[in-house]
Amino acid sequence: MHPYFSQRKRLAPWLGFQRMAVESARGFGDRATLARQLNRLGTVHRHARQFDQAIAFAEEALRLHEEAGDQVGIGSTLIGLSATYRHMGRPERSLLCCERSLRIRLEIDDQYGLGITLTNLGATHLALGDPDTAITHYRAALESQRRHGFEGGEAITLHELGKTHHAMGNADLAVEDFLAALRIHRHRDDRFHAGVTLRELGTVYRGLGRITEAHEAYRDALAAFEEIDDRYDAHLVRDLLTR
């Protein structure tokens, strides 16, 4: 069920499912499963913008992974924490989590996790006002993700690269990045991330004066968010359509 919810982001049923998963793991005393499910519960709370709860569950997961010596789990949970801190406007804390995760991914040769960590490092450096370092990390992530065939990670990295090119004033490159990300999102039927990319693409089009294309991208984004009942992101897109 987790892959389904991670692509659809139906927050209410996802939250209910993850709470049951956590309660079940606690009831059985399965600490390894409990740690994984707590980390996922933290992810749901982050998407619901309930950041304090997200941190609390991720920190509990981190303690369990550390007690078990589960390096893969530690590296993954640190990235969840880093994303939450970044969304809270605390990129310095995010950077500490990313750097520790990177050390672990390299030590255990976790190639799948390495790409995710490098992408999060890029996003964190962009939040810190260092887009050049961000792009270096994105390019390293893409090289790893393409070599190993991690399409979902590649699409997210392309999206983040587009945001960085846009922030640097390279709108044409941003469009290329977003369109490449969108092709993969649609191929994987990842409606949440497709909506996010369409929203960003619309904003770039609007800045280029391509208003018709901007509104088309916004409408497609709105349709994606409404389909998965993502009310927060749907509200943001409706506001963009009225400007």
TrEMBL record:
Pfam families: TPR_10 (PF13374), TPR_12 (PF13424). GO terms for cellular component: cell cortex. SMART domains: TPR. It comes from Umezawaea endophytica. It is found in: Cytoplasm. PANTHER family: LD33695P. The keyword Repeat applies. Its main location: cytoplasm. Keywords: Cytoplasm, Repeat, TPR repeat. TPR repeats lie at residues 35-68. This is Tetratricopeptide repeat protein. One of its GO terms (molecular function) is G-protein alpha-subunit binding.
